[in-house]
Amino acid sequence: MAKQRFRDTKKGKVTKIKQKEPKEQLRFVNKRDLFKAILTDSFMLWFPIVYIVIYAVFGDREGFAKHMLDGWLYILVPLTIIEVIFLKVAGQTPGMRAYNLKLIFLPTKSKPPLTTIILRQILSKFTFLFFLWITIFFRKDSRNFHDLIVGTAIVYDDTKDEEEK
To answer: How buried is 129 (Cβ within 10 angstroms: 0-12 exposed, 13-18 middle, 19+ buried)?
Structure first.
């Protein structure tokens, strides 16, 4: 748009300048809140599954130690399924809900599709296994390796703040 001239303004030929609408800024989660949410999820989801697998399926620690590969498979598959269900239904796990966080799909800025959630959760297990979670310390937005691949991010849920006001 051309610059407005002073003489046009003086004569009353003022044209309205369109103001740019501010973009909605996403508030990415900080590392401390993300760690607290993961820790809460481990106590609420992971530990009960581990306990059930070790003592109900294998009988004791020694039975689990003899069949460790099967044991970890019996732990990780139900954990992934439970996390996928939580993320599909509510967009957050219990730990994320406790700290007012939600998972979004960056291209649409809404809840991710089911295939994206499943791929994210499977990749998150490999990210943990191969120490790719270290990427979180090199990024300002605290996105992990699996979030970068599938295009998701964990952000603060501002809708909950607005409902409380």
So the answer is: exposed
